[in-house]
């Protein structure tokens, strides 16, 4: 990992300001070799009409943590990350509390990163299992 844990978490939380991640109150809370963890509160702001965590909010958490985790393996001055495919299996519902998204690297290539993201509740129950493919691009000068 190019940056230490505290610096990486600070970086992830800073670049989330004024974005969907801030709107959903996603906070990056742990990092290590090949993994990143974020948490998101479950309340009415992320519910679907039946009062349960919306699958789209789960996918937003998964893509946020998986995309941020790819920054472990790139030079952010020279490269950028784009999520190109995500899939999710929603296995259990939750009405209130906190969910945690843990992204773990499956494949780290030069141009593609494949992540498994497990979304769990506070007791460790699996809520959703997601897979994210990120493409690594060379930054082009702004025109």
General description of the model:
The protein has helices spanning 5-15, 20-23, 55-70, and strands at 27-32, 35-42, 79-90, 97-108, 112-120, 126-138. The radius of gyration is 15 Å and the shape is globular. It has 143 residues and is α+β, with helices and mostly antiparallel strands. The longest helix has 16 residues, at 55-70. The chain has a six-stranded antiparallel beta sheet. It starts with a helix and ends in a 5-residue tail after the last strand. The model has no long low-confidence stretch (mean pLDDT 95). It is built from three helices and six strands, in the order ααββαββββ. The relative contact order is 0.19. Strand 1 (27-32) and strand 2 form a beta hairpin.
């Amino acid at each position: 990992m190019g940056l230490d844990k505290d610096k990486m978490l600070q970086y992830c939380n800073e670049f989330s300001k004024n974005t969907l991640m801030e709107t959903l109150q996603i906070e990056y809370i742990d990092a290590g070799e090949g993994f990143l963890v974020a948490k998101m509160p479950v309340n009415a702001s992320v519910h679907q009409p039946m009062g349960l965590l919306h699958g789209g909010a789960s996918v937003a958490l998964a893509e946020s943590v998986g995309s941020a985790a790819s920054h472990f393996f790139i030079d952010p001055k020279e490269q950028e990350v784009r999520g190109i495919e995500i899939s999710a299996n929603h296995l259990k519902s939750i009405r209130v509390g906190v969910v945690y998204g843990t992204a773990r690297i499956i494949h780290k290539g030069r141009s593609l990163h494949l992540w498994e993201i497990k979304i769990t509740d506070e007791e460790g129950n699996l809520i959703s299992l997601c897979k994210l493919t990120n493409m690594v691009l060379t930054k082009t000068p702004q025109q």
